[in-house]
Amino acid sequence: MEAADDIAYATGDIEDVLKKGFVDFATIRESLSTLRSSESRECVTKFFNAPYENDFKNLEPRERQQLTVQRFCQMAIRLMMKSAIESFLQNFVSIMDGEFEYDLVGAMVMSDLCSALKEILRKYVHSHVEIAHREQTARSVIAGLLSAIVEELQDRPSGPLSVSTYREAPVHSQEKGLAISNANYSLSLRAADYVAGMTDGHALAQYQRISGMRGIL
Predict the structure, then answer these.
(1) Domain coordinates in residue numbering, the chain
(2) Which of 52, 118, 119, 213 is 20 to 30 A removed from 6 (C-alpha atoms)?
C-alpha cells in the first residue's frame, strides 16, 4: 500500500500541474532525460518521447503536450507497480522477517523514475504560492474540524452528533488499554477517524457550516 501510494503521488499530479501552468513541458522532459536505469529510460523513450514525436505530432502544441504526459503517466504507473512487485518478491524473506530496512519504491529498479517525478513536484509545484495558499486553507480547515468535534464529544457526549455521527473508531487490540485509560486519546481518535474519511470538498463544506460561514436551510 505504501508503494502504491508513493507511485500514485509521484504521477497523479503531473498532468494537472502542466495544465495549470505550474511547470512547463520542456522542464518535465528535461527532468526525465537523466534517468539511470535502463528500464526507466526505456519507459521515457517509448511512452513520452515516441508519442510526442509521432502519435501526437499533428495536434496543436498544448493538446500535444497534455496527451503526451497523460500517456506517459498511465504507462509509468503500470511499469513502476510491476517494478515494485518484483522488488517485493526479491525481498520477500527479509520483509516477512522484519529485517527489510528500506521501502519498496526505494529498492525497486525504477526508483530513479519515481524520484525524478517527485522532484518535479517538490521543485516546481510545492513552492508555488497558490499551493502555499491551499495548504494554509487546509491547515485551518483540519484544525477547525478537529477542535469542533473534540469539543462536541467532550461537552455533549450523549448528544445526537456524538452518538450518531462522531461514533467510536475501531481500536487495535494493543491500543484498547490506552483508549480506556486515556479519555482524551479516545476522543481524539474518534475525531481524527471522522475527519480522515472526508473528501476535500466535504471537509471544506463541514468547516464552513460549523464555523457559521455557511448557513443551513
Answers:
(1) 2-127, 130-210
(2) 52
